[in-house]
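User: I'm putting together a teaching handout on how multi-component assemblies are represented. Below are the sequence lines for each component of a complex, exactly as they appear in our records. Could you produce the 3D structure of the whole assembly as C-alpha cells, so the students can see both representations side by side? Please keep the chain order the same as the input.
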Amino acid sequence: MNDPDWAAQNIDTNQPSAARMYDYYLGGSHNFASDRQAAGKVLELLPDAPLMAQANRAFLHRSVRFLVDQGVRQFIDLGSGIPTAGNVHEVAPESTVVYVDIDPVAVAYSEAILSDVSRAAIVHADARQPEKVLESPVTQGLLDFDQPIGLLMVAVLHFVAESEDPANMVATFRDALPAGSAIALAHVTLDERPEEMERITAIYQNSANPTTFRTRQQIDGLLTGWDLVDPGVTWVVEWRPDWPDDADGNSAWCGNYGAVGWKQ
Ligand SMILES: C[S@@+](CC[C@H](N)C(=O)[O-])C[C@H]1O[C@@H](n2cnc3c(N)ncnc32)[C@H](O)[C@@H]1O
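Assistant: Of course. Below is the structure of the complete assembly, with chains in the same order as your input.
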C-alpha cells in the first residue's frame, strides 16, 4: 500500500517519533505501528498520558489567549507538532504564526493545512539551532521583529538534553526578540512518579526524540530573565484555569509545569 500524503518521504517509519506518539495520545491518526507500539508501552506506565496531553494542549490554548488579550499578535511555536484541534493560528485568528518542527510528518501535514493560510507557515528546523529558525526566510517574511512576539515552547524542551544547553537555547531566542515579547513554556517533570518517568525515558530513548524530564528547580532555571506573570511556574492545569475546579490543589497528575513570562 502507498504511504498516505502526510507521510513525508525519507522517514524511517520503524522508528517512533515524539510527534507521532503525541498524536496517538491525542487520538489522532498521523502515526505508524512503531509509534503506537512505543506509545502503548508509555500508556501501560502512565494510563493518564492522553489526559496529560489534553491538559498540555489546554495550557497552550489558555496561554495564547492570555497573550492575545495582552496585545501579542505574533507567535513562534517551537515544536508545534502534528496539527490537531486548536492550532495556534486558530486560537489566535488575527495573529501571525510561525510553526517550527523537526518531525517530517508534522511538517508535511502542517504544510498541507496551511497551504491557503497567508498569515501562518511552518519551518522545518531543529529548535536547538535558534539561528536557523530566526534567520529562515519564512520567519523573516512573516514576523515583524519590532513588535512583540510570543515564543511558545510547549512540551518541547524536554526533548533537549542537558548537554545541548537548553538554557542557552531559550536565552538565544529571548535575546533575538524585542522588549514586550513573551514566553509560554510547558515542561514535563520527573518530580512526580520518578520511577515511571525513568522508564518512560528509556522508551523514548529508542525514538527519534529522546527525553530529558526535569525537576521544578531545573525548569525554573530555564526561565531566567523572564518576568513571570502570576501564578509563576505551576502545574499546567493550575495556570489561570478557565474553571476554578480545575485547580483543586490535586494537580500533580498532569506531570507538567507551565509558566508565562515577559521580556522587559
Ligand atoms: C509533545 S509534542 C508537543 C506539540 C505541541 N507543542 C503541543 O504542546 O501540543 C513535541 C513536539 O516537539 C517536536 N520537537 C522535538 N524536538 C524538537 C527540536 N529539536 N526542534 C523542533 N521540534 C522538536 C516534536 O517533533 C513534536 O512535534
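A couple of points students might notice: The pocket of S-adenosylmethionine is lined by residues 18-19, 22, 56-57, 60, 79-81, 100-103, 106, 126-128, 154-156, 159, 209 (CB under 6 Å). The first strand starts at residue 74 and ends at 78.
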